Amino acid sequence: MLSYILKRIALMLPTLLGVLTLTFVVIQFVPGGPVDQVLAEARAARGGGAEGGGYSARRDIDAKQLEELKALYGFDKPAHVRYVEMLKNFAKFDLGRSFMHNKDVWQLIKEKLPVSISLGLWTFLISYLVSIPLGIAKAVKEGSKFDAFTTLLVLIGYAIPGFVLGVFLIVLFAGGTFFDWFPLRGLTSDNWAELSWPARIADYFWHLTLPLICIVIGSFAVMTMLTKNTFVEEMRKQYVLVARAKGLSQQRVLYKHIFRNALIPIITGFPAAFVGAFFAGSLLIETLFSLDGLGLLSYESVVRRDYPVVLGSLYLFTLIGLVVKLVADVLYVVVDPRVQFGAAAK
Q1: What is the mean pLDDT of residues 278-305?
Q2: pTM: predicted TM-score of the whole model, two decimal places
Q3: CA-to-CA distance for 82 and 232, rounded, in angstroms?
Q4: Measured by CB atoms within 10 angstroms of the end CB, which terminus of the chain is less buried, N or C?
């Protein structure tokens, strides 16, 4: 296994380099860079309006000012020089400084993490704590009315877009046409620091209730159906029939013999699902409920051509994704010792 892990780590480097290189090359051909963004905003502030964008705004400043702006953002250097500098900085985990926020990218990501951690952690826990027991129950009662009814419910939840459900919940429960029961901004109230700890916890979940419903409701279907189908497949195998023929009870057969084998695909997906829930982000949900998280940061950085944030966050998330994939593979052999990485690597 050690040989396999070392080979996988060695393969991470060209993969990471390929992702960064492709993104950097694409960025060079995207019109309306940060210099043009600043020029367009300056022109609009002077009353010239945004018509014509950053390109026409170049006519309103002299060449010296334009060169100073390029030097400020590092665009006075050739692309290949900027590319090499970026790789050197990333090797030291220096993600650069945001053009738009004038802050270190690390600092920006840390500021947005509380929202992403809150949404990701509870989405992950609720999804798995509901989907796995529900999937097992559906497998045991396959073909029953319970199986059909719960399948209909999870598929309806999967079919409803999260932002549509969010708008409905806002209208119904958050000061819209009907009730004003839930807040619409932030993770906590303005007086959160003045509250007692039980009140703080209640306030925190009070703010998270509607966003979590919107995100979680569509995540039940895939995990529930995967759990059900995996258990049903295992229940039809020969070793289960032999265990039942020996007179073992249904519960003993289910949880002693079937459970471990059936959960292999689910358990090995834990790391990826866990990190994905944190960093995938939900731009529309964050916008609807005024939650300033990584999803909104990523969108704004692309729109405003904030390249250090785009490249820095991409580097960080790609690296985390590669490590998580390696952890998932190692976890697979821990759960199922029959898997031999040495044979697969040859």
Answers
A1: 78
A2: 0.73
A3: 55
A4: C
